[in-house]
Amino acid sequence: MSKAAVLAPGSLASPANMRRSSARVSRRTIILIAYIVFLMLPIYWMVNMSFKTNEEILAGLTLYPHTPTLHNYITIFTDPSWYSGYINSIYYVTLNTVISLLVALPAAYAFSRYRFIGDKHVFFWLLTNKMAPPAVFLLPFFQLYSEVGLFDTHIAVALAHCLFNVPLAVWILEGFMSGVPREIDEMAYIDGYSFPRFFTTVFMPMIRAGIGVTAFFCFMFSWVELLLARTLTSVNAKPIAATMTRTVSASGMDWGLLAAAGVLTILPGALVIWFVRNYIAKGFALGRV
Amino acid sequence: MTVSLEGVTKKVGADLHLHPLSLALQPGTFNVLLGRTLAGKTTLMRLMAGLDAPSSGRVLENGKDVTGVSVRHRDIAIVYQQFINYPAMTVFDNIASPLRRQGKSSADIDAHVRRTADMLRITPYLARLPAELSGGQQQRCAIARALVKGAGLLLLDEPLVNLDYKLREELRAELRDIFADGKTTVVYATTEPQEALILGGAVTVLHEGRLLQTGPTSDVFQSPVTEECASVFSDPPMNVLEAILTNDRVALSDGTSLPLSAHDRNLPAGPCRVGIRANHLTVLRRSDRLVPITGRVELSEISGSETFIHLRHGSTTLIAREDGVHTHPIGSEIQVYADPDRIFVFSTAGALVAAPLGRRGMLRNIA
C-alpha cells in the first residue's frame, strides 16, 4: 500500500510537484497507518495481555507488558484440560476437511460434467443448506447423536460440520472443475486411462489450487464454528473454543490465560491462509473467476 | 483401418444433428470432411471415435461392429481444435501418456517420444509444461501425442483453426508429409475449401447435417453434384444466376448471353441455373470468347495477392476475382468478364447438369 503511494504519478517531477506529492503521500500514509492501527488494535491487545500477569492486567492500562511472562503459555501447554482442547479441535476439523473433500470431489465432478434430471435444483438446494443457521439443526443432531452413541466423539462434530462444509466444497470445486475443458477428460479416455486413474492422476493435479482453497474454507468454517461443536461434546471431544468460554473459576477470570489461548486459536487459521493466499479471492467467488 | 458408417444418425433432444448417413473410409487414406460451421463435422467425428453413440445406425471398424464400444477400447486418436494437453504434465509426459497406458517399456517410450517430437520439431521443449509453449507448439504437442499412439484411425477436428496464418500454412504442409505413411486412416475436418484442395486425398462435403458428396477431392471440386455442394466447396461462394438454355446460347436472366462450350452443348433447352466461380469472373479480358458483365462495385476486399470485387448486378451480387492488389471506388461501374468455357450448369432444382471440362480434358457431362 505505502509502495503504491510512493510511486504515485508526479512523484518524479519538478520540486514543486514533489512538495505537493510528498504532502499527499504523508496524508495517505497517516490515513493508512490509522486504519491499520484501528484494525490491529484488538489483536495487539490480546497478544499484549497474553504476556502480562493477571495483576498487571487488573492494575490499570499499560501499553506493553511491564513484567513480561510466559507463564500463561506454559500453563496451556502443560495442563491437559487446555491442550487437549486444541488437539480435539484440530482432530475434528481435519477429519471434517477430509470427509468434506472426499464427498465433494465426486459430487462436484458429476455436477460439472453430467446433465441429469433436477441437477440445477439439487445444486442450488445444496447452497441453501449453507444459508440455514446451524442452530436450526442443533436439536435434531443432539437427539440423533445421543441415541446412536455418537455424542461427545470427534466424528460427531466432524459429521455435523459437513452440513455446511460439503455444500460449500461442492460449489467451490464445481467452479474449478468447470474451468477444465471437457475434452481433457475425453483425451484421457482415448489415451486409455480408466476413470479412477484419470481422476486421481490427471484431473486432481489440474485443480489442485481449487482443492487447496476448498480445504482451507472447510478448515476455517469448522474451526470457527462454536455452537454445534460445544453442544455435541462434553469432555472427550471438547473443542478449545468451548474450553475458553467455560473458564470462569471461583477466583474470577484468568485474563492472561484466556488471552494466550486466544492467540493460539487464531494461529492455525493465519497459517493456513498464508498457504492459499494467492487463490483466496477465487475461492470466495466459488471458483468462478 | 477401414471405417464404415451405416445409416448413422444423431439426435440431440428433438433436433436431428445428423441425417441418415453412410460412409466408407478406405485404410490408409487421407479424408477431408468439408463443411461450414454446424455442418455436423464434429458430430460425425465423435461418432467415428466412439465419444458419442449414434441415435441409430452402425459404426464398423475393419468390418467389426463397434457401435457401443467405449472410446477406451477403440484404436483411435484425436486432435481437437482447441489445444488439448494435460497442463500438469511436461511435453514429454504428455506425448508419452498413451504409450504408458499401453504398458510399453520405458526405453521404448523414450525412443518413440523422441522420434515423434523430432518429426514435429518440438524436441527442445520436451521438458517444458504446455502452458510455456506458443500456440503452434502446443498444437504440435497434441498432434505428437495423437501420432505416437499409432492408432488405426486418426481424427483431426479443425486442428489449425486457432493458429495464425503463417503457422497454419507451415503445419499444413508438414501434416501432408507426416500422414503420407499410408498406415493410418486420417480424417481431417475443415471449413476451408482451400485447405481441402491443398490437402488432397478424398473429400466428404457436409451441409447442415447432410452428406452432399464424397469422392476424390479434385473430382468433387470439378464436378460438384449439386449447387449446394458447389457453394460449400468454393471460396468465395459460387455466383449463381437464373438462365435459359437454347440450342446455341445460354441466356442469363439479366440479358447477358454466353456462347455454348464443349461441355454444355447438346443439352436440352429450357430454364436452368448457371454457376460461375469467382476466379472465372475476371477484370482482365484474357480472350475474345469472354463475355462482359457490367456491375456497380459494392465492396472490394484484398486477400493476400488477389482482390475480390463484390458487384451489384441487377438484383444479385456477383463476386469477381482479380490478380494483384487493386482498389475500386465503391459505387463505380466496372466490367467483368465471364468465361463461357468454365461455367457450371445446374437444373432449376440445383442438380448438376454440366461441369466445365477438367484439366485432363475429360468430358464430364452428367446430363
TrEMBL record, chain B:
PROSITE patterns, alphabetized: ABC_TRANSPORTER_2 (PS50893)
Keywords for the protein's UniProt record, in alphabetical order: ATP-binding, Cell membrane, Membrane, Nucleotide-binding, Translocase, Transport
GO CC annotation terms, alphabetical: ATP-binding cassette (ABC) transporter complex, substrate-binding subunit-containing
Domain spans labelled ABC transporter: 3-233
CDD domains documented for this protein: ABC_Carb_Solutes_like (cd03259)
Molecular function per GO: ABC-type ferric iron transporter activity; ATP binding; ATP hydrolysis activity
InterPro entries: AAA+_ATPase, ABC_transporter-like_ATP-bd, ABC_transpr_FbpC, ABC_transpr_MalK/UgpC-like, Mo/tungstate-bd_C_term_dom, NA-bd_OB-fold, P-loop_NTPase, Transp-assoc_OB_typ2
Membrane-spanning segments: none
Gene3D superfamilies in UniProt: 2.40.50.100, Nucleic acid-binding proteins, P-loop containing nucleotide triphosphate hydrolases
A Pfam family hit: TOBE_2
PANTHER family in alphabetical order: MALTODEXTRIN IMPORT ATP-BINDING PROTEIN MSMX, TREHALOSE IMPORT ATP-BINDING PROTEIN SUGC
Family: Belongs to the ABC transporter superfamily.
Protein name: ABC transporter ATP-binding protein
